[in-house]
Amino acid sequence: MRGANLSRLEGNRYQEDHVGISPEDEVVRICQELIRIDTSNYGDNVGPGERKAAEYTAGLIEEVGLSTQLFESAPGRTSVVARMEGSDPSLPALVVHGHLDVVPAQKEDWTVDPFGGEEKDGLIWGRGAVDMKDMDAMILSVLRSMQRDGVKPRRDLIFGFFADEEAGGAYGASWLVDNKPEVFEGATEAISEVGEGSRRPSAGSGRTSCRPRRRASPGSVSWRTVVPATARRSTPTTR
Ligand SMILES: [Zn+2]
Questions:
Q1: CATH homologous superfamily for 8-195?
Q2: Beta bridge partners of 82
Q3: Is residue 120 scored above 80 in pLDDT?
């Protein structure tokens, strides 16, 4: 298999050197590095980090030979899109997307640096560890593995990493749909974070926050503790 992969990737020194690297080998590092880029979304365009996170994300994708497009709806409000060509052009495209922004974090509310991406007790801690730099990292590590190993999906995959999800998406996904619809040409479905981290229990019992414990070991997420939060908190701890 290794030989077959190498022949398909002939001419790309980076890929030849990195065939055999699995998503599990780098997903934790990517998640940590994304958390360390403060992409707090205050809802008023003053957040510092979406551009930086977008450039970091685009770099990871370009590094394995897939072209990216960066779109900036307003200064610093940057989204990344990349399309991986499928083998069957008769099939519709699938959008796989995440967001790069996070809900702001008050350091005094945390027992760790919310932007430290610290690994502690075998878990990764930080703002965005659940919503949703974890999934961003999983998407990126799988995308990179597919590129390195010459894996072609049957249908086109459109990867999107958007700004501004936490404040409504006007500067991210909504802006792209309105201003750059060609980016999503041929797509009929999209998958992302819905159902990932938090859920609302039955009426009257308040909001439920799930505190996930993310294994540092290869690529797995285990859910161990559910912390019911009452009206004491205005911001769910999953964010
Ligand atoms: Zn989210």
A1: Zn peptidases (3.40.630.10)
A2: 159
A3: yes
The rounded Å distance from CA 184 to ligand 1 centre is: 20
Q: Are strands 119-120 and 187-191 parallel, antiparallel or unpaired?
A: unpaired
Sign (positive/negative) of CA torsion 72, 35, 217, 191? Answer: negative
- CA dist., res. 29 & res. 37, Å (int): 13
Q: Is the peptide bond before 135 cis (omega within 30 degrees of 0)?
A: no
Supply the pTM of this predicted model. Answer: 0.76
Q: Domain-by-domain residue ranges, the chain?
A: 8-195
168: CA distance to ligand 1 center in Å?
11
What is the C-alpha separation between 160 and 142, in angstroms, rounded?
14
Strands 187-191 and 93-99 turn out to be parallel
CA of 91 to the centre of ligand 1 (A): 28
